[in-house]
Amino acid sequence: VDLKKANDRLEELLDCVDHPRKVREGQRLYCGLDLGTAFIVLVVMDEDGNPVDCKYQFASVVKDGMVVDYVGACDIARRLKEQIEGELGVELEECAVAIPPETEALDGGVVKNVAESTGLECTAVFDEPTAANLLIGTTDGAVVDIGGGTTGISVFKDGKVVECIDESTGGTHFSLVLAGAKGMTFDDAEVYKRNPEHHREVLPIVSPTIDKVTTIIERACRDYEVPEVILVGGTAELTGIEDRVQKRLGIEVHKPSHPMFVTPMGIALGC
Ligand code: ATP
């Protein structure tokens, strides 16, 4: 898949975080709310799919894809919405949300309720890797969303999802391994890991966990001919993770420029 268009949109989105775009009066806006294990992200796009604003906050209101602090989740989502409304000078009305694959029956309603508690009308509930693919646009390949608590995988064949799974290994496990190896607290390891200057040191320490993620990808793909794998999600920000996965998997692996923002942006595109 050609990632150029996705990468251009992601650069724009990152620029929006500090420089929200101007909106016209009465302009229709579309939001994507991503409630994650590590981050809650709210993305706003215009009708042409151009990013308008984006705000996010580190949070511990979701665990292994489940909302464990409902009031906390509502609070953060409301604050992000109010912050964006303050910046743009308009009221946001509609949003889409996403949940990890296989949690629909359990949690789909909860995530929707969090969104609606802020006053937004929820127009769609996606599974995360499928939402990510609304930006990536692969027709034949696997989109792998390595988040905080889980790794979600959607396998696409002729543009249709043929397999969709979620397993509980993600960046939180990387931080736990790092904390153990360096004698740090989990919170310190989490911050240390996210600094790109530490990635060369971090990569070999968390390699066994990367290999665990690769095994999960392998299992999801084994019944299909998968020509390429696209890594998204915050944990895919780790420099070099794509090379390790590709070597073990034996399938070409690609990564967009800001993988952490692919799913939130895809959700907004689906609104
Ligand atoms: P989930 O999808 O599992 O519910 P989430 O939506 O919060 O979780 P993401 O926001 O995609 O997941 O990713 C969060 C994870 O990405 C965290 O573990 C975080 O430490 C990790 N992460 C974020 N930025 C970086 C970075 N620059 N380097 C390494 N890891 C990073």
Distance between the termini: 23 Å
Query: Structurally, how many domains make up the residues?
Result: 2
| Strand tally | 12
Looking at CATH, which topology of the largest domain would you report?
Answer: Nucleotidyltransferase, domain 5
Secondary-structure element pattern, one letter each: HEEEEEHEHEHEEEHHHEHEH
Low-confidence stretches: none
Report the major sheet. 5 strands, mixed
* Helix content class: 40-55%
Number of helices, counting only DSSP H or I runs of 4 residues or more: 9
Radius of gyration using CA atoms only: 18 Å
Q: Average pLDDT across residues? A: 94
**Bound ligand species:** adenosine-5'-triphosphate
Secondary-structure-derived class: alpha/beta
In CATH, the homologous superfamily of the largest domain goes by the name: ATPase, nucleotide binding domain
Strand content: 15-25%
Strand order of the largest sheet: 3-2-1-6-7
Shape: globular
Q: Which CATH architecture of the largest domain would you pick? A: 2-Layer Sandwich
Tell me what you see in this structure:
With 271 residues, the chain is α/β, with parallel strands linked by helices. It folds into 2 domains: 4-132 and 261-269, ATPase, nucleotide binding domain (Nucleotidyltransferase, domain 5, 2-Layer Sandwich); 137-257, ATPase, nucleotide binding domain (Nucleotidyltransferase, domain 5), CATH 3.30.420. It is 44% helix and 25% strand. The chain has 9 helices and 12 strands. The chain has helices at residues 4-18, 70-88, 104-117, 128-136, 171-182, 186-194, 199-221, 241-249, 262-269, and strands at residues 30-35, 39-45, 51-58, 62-63, 66-67, 94-99, 121-127, 141-146, 151-157, 160-167, 228-232, 252-254. Helix 2 packs across helix 3, helix 4 (128-136) crosses helix 9 and helix 5 (171-182) packs antiparallel against helix 7 (199-221). The longest helix has 23 residues, at 199-221. It is globular and about 50 Å long. The protein starts with a helix and ends with a helix. The relative contact order is 0.17.
